[in-house]
Amino acid sequence: MSNTDMNMRGKIIFYEERNFMGRHYECMSDCADMSSYMSRCHSCRVESGCFMVYDRPNYMGNQYFFRRGEYADCMSMMGWRDWIRSCRMIPMYRGSYRMRIYERENFGGQMYEMMDDCDSIMDRYRMSDCMSCHVMDGHWLMYEQPHYRGRMMYMRPGEYRSFREMGYGGMRFTSMRRIMDSWY
């Protein structure tokens, strides 16, 4: 495989112990359940691409974004008590970005169309809550707190009618950021 092919696909290596020790598992695509490959995961190395990791199988639970780099102690860094259970590769995207955010579920209430990062929907739009969205173009990260802090959720193109029904009922997303090709 050429370097160009590998950069387009992405590669992440998970290790059972901190500091890249113990058994490891190399992944170059989505993995819905890592338990068949390893019993736990406490560190990882992203050699290329970007990935979302999840603390539950089937891309559920808390999410965390990883780009190229070394993460010697993932659990402490993310503040998780559990370990990484699944991961999703974020495809490289070069193009325009467009997302509509809505104040209420099922695309109700105020609507704003975004084409760039927003560090606070309250400051920019006077919108206190975002409960549904429609991602038309690009891949995005939504954050629980302003200025891209707190828990996050990966959004790929599609309609998201109810964050509550997706299992994010207790979260309020207040800032959004595009996943840019320069991050790869």
Automatic annotation (TrEMBL):
GO MF terms, alphabetically ordered: structural constituent of eye lens
Statement: the UniProt record of this protein carries the keyword Repeat: yes
Record's keyword terms, sorted: Eye lens protein, Repeat
SUPFAM superfamilies per record: gamma-Crystallin-like
Superkingdom assignment: Eukaryota
Example GO biological process: lens development in camera-type eye
Domain Beta/gamma crystallin 'Greek key': 10-48, 49-91, 138-180
Gene3D superfamilies given in the database record: Crystallins
Family per similarity comment: Belongs to the beta/gamma-crystallin family.
Summary of the function given for this chain in its UniProt record: Crystallins are the dominant structural components of the vertebrate eye lens.
Protein name: Gamma-crystallin M3-like
Organism of origin: Poecilia formosa
